[in-house]
Write a structure and sequence with these properties.
The structure is a homodimer. Chain A folds into two domains: about 20-150, Jelly Rolls (Sandwich), CATH 2.60.120; about 160-230, Arc Repressor Mutant, subunit A (Orthogonal Bundle), CATH 1.10.10.10. Chain A has eight helices and eight strands. Chain A has helices spanning about 25, 35-40, 125-135, 135-155, 165-180, 190-195, 200-210, 230-235, and strands at about 45-50, 55, 65-80, 85-90, 95, 110-125, 215-220, 225. At the A-B interface, α4 of A face α4 of B.
Chain lengths: ~240, ~240
Amino acid sequence: MPKTKPYCTDENWHGRPDCQHCAVRSSVLFAVLTDAEIEEALLAVQNGWFEPDFELFAQGGREGYVYVMRTGCVKMVHAGGGGVSRIVRLHWRGEVVGLEALLNEPYRHSAVVLQKADVCRIPVSLVHALALRNPELSYQIMRQGQVSLDAVESGITDLNSGTGEARLAQLLLKFNAHSGGQCIPDLLREDIAGIIGVTTETASRLMADFRRRKLVWNEENRQLRCDAEALRKLV
Amino acid sequence: MPKTKPYCTDENWHGRPDCQHCAVRSSVLFAVLTDAEIEEALLAVQNGWFEPDFELFAQGGREGYVYVMRTGCVKMVHAGGGGVSRIVRLHWRGEVVGLEALLNEPYRHSAVVLQKADVCRIPVSLVHALALRNPELSYQIMRQGQVSLDAVESGITDLNSGTGEARLAQLLLKFNAHSGGQCIPDLLREDIAGIIGVTTETASRLMADFRRRKLVWNEENRQLRCDAEALRKLV
DNA sequence: CGCAACCTTGAAGCGGGTCAATATTCGTGG
DNA sequence: CCACGAATATTGACCCGCTTCAAGGTTGCG
């Protein structure tokens, strides 16, 4: 990971005010810590922006970090036997990935950026140390485990039932919701295919079809927009 | 749940010797406790055998128990909007279900016995109390969360890819492995269908076909047996 | 015995897979 | 700036597996 000062403590970073509402601080893992503990914690936390395709960690790795998503989206890719790999779930703002590292286990999947992401990297040693003094932190971690379960199960129920059309609609709506109706990344057809469980060709056909039906269209900046109302009718 | 004395402490129960290797005691949640703590814990733990179709708990419930599987298998059924329900994962010997209760959240699914099951029911208050004195217990719980993730993800990779034939073969092999090649329950076609993600008719066709091909057959006691070798070739 | 629940089997249709050809985009170097 | 090539996207044709709808068959229980 590129060396960047944790910008939550960097006066020069223009985004600093957001630190007050940082996912790390207010909503997720460290919600239960005192201000003093937070200050101490931030020193060990690395932060940075990553472009699509950057790999936060690889399946089998044991680097010993957990990652908190502040913006963007990562896919969790499971490499099965025989070169086949499936996207088992997606993670968004406020979610923690790589939790298995807290149990001293190797990463079960690779985490790859799907949409430009702002991510904090936290050493597991720090989490362990804090958890000793804050039993409540353990429950925050378990809560994050439940979030992962939610993600993978919604993948089953939403993205794996119904026609390909319905599944693609769900996926687009999900991206739309997570970006406040602003920017849906124009994913590779291969990624779309991996997520909704069809072949690349079918994903392409579906996207082309959606575009013809004006359900999605390109903004000047290469981002997608969608007609959420219309998409909802397809689900 | 029927009132039964926890038979781990019942001298008259013929299965008592097994208590030494009880899933509760040796492998799962309470592996980290001292003997004295175990004794105290067992007083609050209820245990019993349950037949297929018995519902351990219902989606949305808040009874405040976690359940440890000692034998058998339960399906986790998620009721989605509009009467449709999907089987999101299976749990077997040694696994803990209903973990969300530890976070004071309602059960996210219904847990229904699929194969005659020996189950221990543990109040969350007991777990919380023990966790205060044993920080390590929290990690055991997180580990169980990972087991659930494993279960649901293996459902995605194993039981949701390939032809229906391959998926059914995987399912049978899974039951076979978990019962030491002894007893596969003769599941309802509807359950099979829900697990491998096909219609009831297709499940029936597949099972009938497997039977004709001598891949599975009935034992006198209404249990199934399978030719594991042959099934493995279909995956 | 008779009903209800479950299983089996058939026929027709379609969604998506597969294989293959062409188009588009984009980075790179001349 | 354009030409070229690699990666990605689009589209077509054909086929197979599963769904759907429908009709028996089987099991088990009151």
